[in-house]
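Is this the right way to post structure tokens for a design question? Let me know if I should format differently. Anyway, here goes:
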């Protein structure tokens, strides 16, 4: 018996257990399961999410793959996963903001009312002239007294 990589879908590989004598495939499997209700593989979603979380996109994934000598995902596959992740975050945004507020209120022992926080805020726009509807902002709050740090990044759309 031999275990051969037959094909792949991004980081998900198809493995086949083949009889060396007659060539019959005894068993085969993919190295990653598909996402629930989706034709895409979980490992590819996780890789794209991981790189997006550290600020790297498609070229970051491919540079990583080239350096370690493995095949990556296509640009179209990356775009499908990045879009799905973006849409999921848009749906979860109110819940994420609530969780962030609860955490900040817990750190400052202020369960309700106005919180008096010192923050640093800055942003940039896609184009000059105050006509752009796209931009980025960053609001950063560091609370080093108890050793923790809170930060928030996002985009205005
Ligand atoms: Zn055989």
């Amino acid at each position: 018996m031999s275990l051969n990589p037959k094909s792949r879908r991004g980081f998900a590989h198809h493995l086949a257990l083949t009889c060396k004598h007659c060539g019959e495939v005894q068993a085969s499997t993919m190295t990653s399961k598909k996402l629930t209700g989706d034709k895409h593989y979980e490992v590819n979603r996780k890789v794209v999410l991981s790189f997006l979380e550290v600020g790297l996109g498609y070229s970051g994934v491919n540079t990583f793959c080239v350096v370690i000598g493995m095949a990556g995902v296509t640009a179209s596959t990356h775009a499908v996963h990045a879009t799905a992740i973006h849409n999921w975050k848009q749906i979860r945004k109110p819940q994420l903001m609530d969780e962030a507020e609860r955490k900040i209120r817990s750190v400052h022992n202020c369960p309700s009312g106005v919180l008096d926080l010192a923050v640093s805020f800055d942003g940039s726009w896609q184009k000059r002239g105050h006509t752009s509807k796209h931009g980025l902002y960053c609001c950063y709050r560091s609370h080093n007294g108890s050793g923790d740090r809170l930060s928030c990044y996002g985009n205005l759309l």
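Format looks fine. Someone answered above. Worth noting: Residues 117-157 form one domain. The pocket of zinc ion is lined by residues 19, 21-22, 24 (CB under 6 Å).
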